[in-house]
Amino acid sequence: MDTKEKLDAFQDRIDRGEKIEPKDWMPERYRQQLIRMISQHAHSEIVGMLPEGNWIPRAPSLKRKMVLLAKVQDEAGHGLYLYSATETLGARRQDVVEDYIYGNAKYSSIFNYPTLTYADICVIGWLVDGAAIVNQTMLAKSSYGPYARANLRICREESFHKKQGYEMLAKMASGTDEQKKMAQDAVNRWWWPTLMMFGPPDSDSPNSAELIKWGVKTKTNDELRQSYVDRMVMEAEVIDIKLPDPDLKYNKKTGHWEFGEIPWDEFWAVVKGNGPMNRERIKARKNAYEDGEWVREAAIAYARKQKLKEGKAS
Ligand code: FAQ
C-alpha cells in the first residue's frame, strides 16, 4: 500500500539526494515509470545496433571496421546492463523484450532512419552519441541506484563513440569535394532527428513533472535539447560543417543558441510506427529473437546441468 506516510518518507529521501536501491520501499508508480523508461532505453541500445551494423561489412578500412565493430558491441553491452536494471525492479526480461517485439513498447525515434552512406556512421557517432551523452549524463545522477550506475558506465563508453565519430567526420569534412558533400549531406539528414531524441517539448511531455519530482530526470527535455544545441553549434564550426537551420541565432542575453521549429509531426509519425525504417527494424529484431530461441534454450539447459553438478559435488 502506498500510504501517505510512506510516500512522504520516500519523497524526503529523494529530496535529501539519497539513492533508492532495489530492496528499498518505493511507490508502485515510481517502479512502473522506471521499468517503462529503462526498458525503452534498453530496446533503443539494441535496435541502435542495426543502422550501424549495416556498415560493418562495408567499412572503408580494417581500422574503421574494428572501431565500428567495437562500438556496435558496446551498444549490445549497454542494452544488457539496462535489461538487468529492469530486473532489479521485478520485471521479467522475457516480458520486457516481448512487449517490444510483439507489443507496442517504445524505443528511440532516431533508429528509424536509414544509414545511406558511410558518412552517416560518422554522424551517428558525433550527433546521436553526442545527444545520448547529454541525456545520460543527467540520468547518471538519477535517484534509482542501478540505473544511475548503468548510465555512468554507458556514458564513459559513449564518450569514446562520440570522439571517434567526430574525428571521422572532421577527416571527411576536410577531404575531397565529394567527401565534404557526403559529410554535409549526412548532417543535413540527421540534425533534426537528433533534436527529437530529447523527447517532445516540455509543454507536451506528460511524464517529465513526475520524473523530475522523483529525481529520475533532473532536467527537462527542452533544457537538455538546448544544452545539446549550444555544444553542437561550436563543434560544427570547428570542423567547418553547417547545421541545416537558417534560424540558428546566438542570443547574447541568454547565452544560448536559438533554433528553428522542430518538425514535431514527423516525430510523432515516427513514434507511432510510421518512420522510414520502423517496420524493417521491428522485423529484424523479431527474426533475431525467434532465430535465437535455441540459444536461449541451450543456455538454460546448460545452467540447469551446472547447478545439478554443483549440487552433487557439495
Ligand atoms: N523516441 O513524457 P515524455 C542511444 C515518448 S540511447 C520515441 O517526454 P519521458 C544510444 C515517451 O516514451 C537513446 N519515443 O517522456 C546509442 C512517452 O511515451 P510513453 C535512447 C519518445 O520519458 C547511440 C511520450 O513520448 N535513450 O542513443 C521519444 O519523460 C548510438 C511522451 O514523452 C533513452 O531512452 C523518442 N525520442 O522522456 C545507441 C534514455 N521521446 O512511454 C546506438 C532514457 C519521447 O509515455 C548508437 N529515456 N518519447 O508511451 C529518457 O531520457 C526519456 O524517457 C526521454 C523521454 C527523454 C526519451
Please provide a written account of the structure.
This protein is mainly alpha-helical and 314 residues long. It contains 13 helices and two strands, in the order ααααααααααββααα. A two-stranded antiparallel sheet has the order 1-2. α6 packs antiparallel against α7 and α6 crosses α10. The longest helix is centred in the middle third of the chain and has 29 residues. The two termini are 42 Å apart. Bound molecules: Phenylacetyl coenzyme A. Phenylacetyl coenzyme A (FAQ) binds next to α2, α6 and α9.
Query: In terms of per-residue confidence, which ranges show pLDDT below 50 for 5 or more consecutive residues?
Result: none
Provide mean pLDDT, rounded.
96
Distance between the termini: 42 Å
Strand order of the largest sheet: 1-2
Instruction: Specify Rg, calculated over alpha carbons.
Output: 21 Å
The small molecules bound here are:
Phenylacetyl coenzyme A
How would you sum up the global shape?
A: globular
* Beta content: under 5%
The helix content is 55-70%
User: Element order, helices and strands?
Assistant: HHHHHHHHHHEEHHH
Total strand segments: 2
Largest sheet: 2 strands, antiparallel
Number of helices: 13
**Backbone structural class:** mainly alpha
Gist of the model:
This protein is mainly alpha-helical. It is 68% helix and 2% strand.
Characteristic terms for this protein:
binds Phenylacetyl coenzyme A; two-stranded antiparallel sheet; single chain
